């Protein structure tokens, strides 16, 4: 008998029919003798719709109200799932983040979990219930509802799994595991049977949305084994864990991220301290700068480009509007159509030549590199957004990652697929 946490994402609970499927799966686990705790996301595109509603009323909604609003999505799906389980003759009880004991700091929209109290969940399990926990949310020291960042139900699941000492944290989604690239972008991507925490952390951080980065961080810290698998089939998925049974490849996978934007500040006086002023002011205004490129100075003037999340656009523009006259820079330009493509692999550490091969491949495919950054196990390039798919595919082929089979969509509607493809923006 195993103790299992099973998390179902938005697509998996998008309709009453799909909620029924989830209820059946949970009950099947009980019938097989396991104990199970469910964690759910909001139904389908609910969270996006709630964000849209808020935006229609306030273009800068108060963070506290926003978190309260967004947390309601998961509270709808948790109760419906509990009802569906009860209708099938099994006992179920839903829990909000607070009731499930998820205590966080007070950083609205990206709160960090500081404590997990397991009493209520353990008690419900002991009394024969299937607990159903609302993902994505917690409670801060003031008693206010917080949320854990987009995709945060994954983190709830890992935290609950750790809190109750589960054997495995199963994350069910519309793909049957972690692939060597997003299979919707690179249909020749191959399903990986296992991935180390380090590689998964880099992949998630570089945009592989299949698992939220925070969840992987939490799992690595507390050695929670994640099993990423399909909500629509029983196929074995991908295990994220520490000690892999095989040698790690040079390149584990390729991630892409279209959610960043690029600013170029032109005509910056090339004097000591100006870069410090630009980036300290951006940091003070909560702009999360990722890559920085400084072009050679001409006539004592330089251009400084940087990338940051699209979500920080407004704050970055406001900051630059104020800053430019202070540093006597000419102007700034904004490019919203960029993509970051990253090669990730722990084996990269001991394998020279990855960068050379990547640059050559992109060159041969007429893909211009706008910026480059590296870590010991990651190489990222920024390219024109329109070339993102081509860049992922040609690198995937060049590094020998292509599978013989082609990824086939099984369950999603055309509308759902379109929504997924636009998710990065
Ligand atoms: P959920 O809503 O269930 O949390 P997500 O949409 O967050 O699901 O994550 C699943 C999606 O992640 C897939 O539909 C897929 O397009 C995308 N994805 C991105 N990179 C990868 C990858 N390397 N392997 C598998 N899926 C990926
Ligand atoms: N519903 C939230 C979101 O859409 C959390 C999640 O799905 O994990 O980001
Ligand atoms: Mg997700």
UniProtKB/TrEMBL annotation:
Q: Which UniProt keywords apply?
A: Amino-acid biosynthesis, ATP-binding, Kinase, Lysine biosynthesis, Nucleotide-binding, Transferase
- Extract the GO molecular function terms from the UniProt entry: aspartate kinase activity; ATP binding
Report which reactions are catalysed by this protein. L-aspartate + ATP = 4-phospho-L-aspartate + ADP
- Pfam families in the record: AA_kinase, ACT_9
Positions annotated to bind substrate: 47, 74
Could you tell me the superkingdom of the organism this chain comes from?
Bacteria
Indicate the family of this protein.
Answer: Belongs to the aspartokinase family.
Report what the protein is called: Aspartokinase
From the broadest rank down, the organism's phylogenetic lineage runs:
Bacteria, Pseudomonadati, Bacteroidota, Bacteroidia, Bacteroidales
């Amino acid at each position: 008998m195993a103790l299992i946490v099973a998390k179902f994402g938005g697509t998996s609970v998008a309709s009453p029919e799909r909620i029924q499927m989830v209820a059946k799966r949970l009950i099947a686990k009980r019938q097989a003798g396991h104990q199970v705790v469910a964690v759910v996301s909001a139904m389908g595109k609910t969270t996006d719709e709630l964000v849209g509603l808020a935006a229609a009323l306030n273009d800068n909604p108060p963070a506290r109200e926003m978190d309260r609003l967004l947390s309601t999505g998961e509270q709808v799906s948790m109760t419906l799932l509990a009802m569906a389980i009860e209708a099938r003759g099994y006992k179920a009880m839903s829990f909000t983040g607070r009731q499930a004991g998820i205590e966080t700091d007070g950083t609205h929209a990206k709160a960090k979990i500081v404590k997990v109290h397991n009493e209520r969940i353990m008690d419900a399990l002991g009394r024969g219930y299937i607990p159903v926990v609302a993902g994505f949310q917690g409670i801060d020291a003031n008693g206010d509802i917080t949320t854990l960042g987009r995709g945060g139900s994954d983190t709830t699941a890992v935290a609950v799994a750790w809190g109750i000492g589960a054997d495995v944290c199963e994350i069910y989604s519309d793909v049957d595991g972690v692939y060597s690239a997003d299979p919707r972008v690179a249909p020749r991507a191959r399903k990986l049977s296992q991935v180390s925490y380090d590689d998964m952390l880099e992949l998630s951080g570089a945009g592989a949305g299949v698992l939220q980065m925070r969840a992987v961080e939490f799992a690595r810290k507390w050695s929670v084994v994640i099993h990423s698998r399909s909500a629509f089939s029983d196929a074995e998925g991908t295990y994220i864990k520490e000690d892999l049974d095989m040698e790690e490849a040079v390149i584990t996978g390729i991630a892409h991220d279209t959610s960043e934007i690029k600013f170029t500040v032109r005509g910056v006086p090339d004097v000591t301290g100006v870069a410090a002023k630009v980036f300290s002011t951006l940091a003070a205004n909560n702009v999360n700068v990722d890559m920085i490129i400084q072009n050679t100075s001409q006539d004592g003037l330089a251009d400084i480009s940087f990338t940051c999340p699209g979500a920080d656009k407004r704050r970055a523009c406001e900051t630059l509007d104020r800053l430019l006259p202070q540093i006597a820079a000419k102007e700034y330009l904004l490019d919203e159509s960029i993509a970051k493509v990253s090669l990730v692999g722990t084996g990269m550490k001991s394998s020279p030549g990855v960068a050379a091969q990547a640059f050559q491949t992109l060159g041969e495919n007429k893909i211009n590199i706008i910026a480059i950054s590296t870590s010991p196990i990651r190489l990222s390039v920024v390219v024109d957004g329109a070339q993102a798919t081509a860049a992922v595919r040609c690198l995937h082929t060049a590094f020998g990652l292509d599978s013989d089979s082609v990824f086939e969509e099984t369950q999603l509607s055309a509308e759902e697929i379109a929504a997924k493809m636009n998710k990065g923006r």
